[in-house]
Amino acid sequence: MKTNGILRHLHALDRDCCLLEKTAAVLQWDQETNLPSLGVKERADQLALIEGLAHERAADPRIGQLLADLGSGSEHPSGDESLPPAERDFCRVVRRRYDRAVKLPPGFAADAARAASLSQAAWVDARRRNDFAAFVPHLGAMVGFARKRAEYWGFTGGAVYDGLLDAHEPGIAAEEIARLFGPLRERLSALLKRICAKTASCPETAGDRDFPALSYDTEQQARYSRELMESLGFDFRRGRLDTSAHPFTTTLGFDDVRITTHYKKDNLLSAVFSTIHESGHAFYEMDINPELRETCLAEGVSMGIHESQSRLWENVFGRSRAFWEYQFPRLKALFPGQLGSVTTDVFYRAVNRAGPSLIRIEADELSYSLHIILRFELERRLFSGDLEVEDLPRAWRSGMKDLLGIEPETDAEGVLQDVHWSMGSFGYFPSYALGNLYGLQFLKKLRQDLPGYEGDIARGVFSAIRQWLRENIYTWGRRLDPADLLFKVTGEKLSAAPFLEYIETKYTELYGL
Ligand code: ZN
User: Could you identify which of 194, 339, 447, 475 might form a hypothetical disulfide with 332, taking C-beta atoms 3.0 to 4.6 angstroms apart as the criterion?
Assistant: First the structure.
C-alpha cells in the first residue's frame, strides 16, 4: 500500500475512535445535566460498554501495523520524515494513544469506567451526608485503578504519580511541578497574609461587601449569562449553555461544544464567572483548525493549556476593570434594585475580593493556586505510599491550616468537596495552577502583539484577542505538545514569574498594600 493509502486507512480507524469517545461524552454530559437519579446504574453499564469499545478500537492491531508502515515506533513516534508535518503530528498522537491502549489488559477500561460511574454517585451521597467513611471503599478502588493504569503504562515505583500527571499534561513530572509550585506557595501565602492584616485594620463598608449575596432572580441570571457569552463571541449554532451541579465544558463534536453553569439566587458572581471560565474552554475547542476535524488532533492539547484559556478569560480579562467598564451597565440594567447604587469601581473590587476560603471553586484568583497545591501534595503522598485513603481528612485539615490558615469543620467542606477523585481523576488538579502560569506567559506575548487589547476589552470588542489566540494557540489543537506550544508562542519554558508578578501587582494596587 502506498503512503497515501496507509494514511487514509489510519485516519479512518482514528475517526471511529474519536466517534466512540464523543459518544461516551454525550452519555456523560447527559448524566451531569439531565439523568434522573435512579438511571445511574444503567448509565454506568452503557458507559462501560462504550468505553470498552473505544479502548478496543484504540488498541486495534491494524493501527499498530499502519503506524509501523509509516515508520512510527515508540522511539520515533512521528514516523517517516518525508511525511507532511501535520501527518507526522497525527502519527505521534495516534502512536501515543495506541501504545497506552495496548498496555491495558482487556476489560480494564470497562471495569474502571463502571467503577468510576458508581463511585461518583457514592461521592454525591457521601458529600450530602458528610460521611467520608462511606466513600472510603470507592475512593480506595479509584486509587487502585489509577495506580494500576500508570503501572501498566510503565510508570512504576516512585514514578506512578508521574504517569497520572502525564495523562493530563504530557511531558511534565511531579518534581518539575513541585519546583514551580515552591515560589507560588511562599509568595501567595505571604501576599494573602498581608491582605488579611490590611482588611482586619480597615474593613469594607457592609453595603460594598454584601451586595453580591442579595437575592438575584435565576431567570435573569440565565439571560445575562447568555448575553455575556454572545458578547464574547460564543457561536450558539455550534454550542449550548445548560446547567449542572458543577460547571464544565465538553466537546461532543467539532460543531457541538457545550458548557454548563449553575445559578445561585444568593450568589450573583458564581454563574457570571463560571460562564466566562467555561466559555474560555469552549473558544479553544471551537477555534481549532477545521482541517483537523474528525481526527484525534482536533482537541485541546492538555488540561493545563485548557485551563490557561479558561482562566485567562475568567480572571485576566473577566476580572479586569476594563471588562466591567463595558459589562457592568448591562448587568445593572437587569438588576436595578440590587445594583442601582453600586459603582463600577465597587463592583470591580467585589469581583477581586481575596481572602482564605474553604471551597476551591469559590476561591479568589490569588488563593486559588494554594487550594491546588494542597491537592497536588496530597496526591503525591497518596501515590508514593506515604498517605492512606483513610487518613485524607486529617491530612486535608492540616494542609489547609498550613497553606490558608483555616480548617474546615466538616469533610463536606473539606476533602469531599471536589468531584475529581471520585471519578479516578488523579493528576488532574495541578493543571489548574499550571494553567495560571501558562496563561500569564501567553498574555505577556499577546500584550506585545496587541498593545491596545485592554482598550478593546473596555469597548466590549474581543475579535482581535480571539484572532490572536486562535492563530497562536487554538488552531494547533494537539499538533504541538504543551511545552512546544508554549515555546513556539513565547520562546520561553514554563515559569511562575509572570503569574506571580501579575498577581502581586494587581493585589498590591487593589488593597493599597
Ligand atoms: Zn476549567
Answer: 339
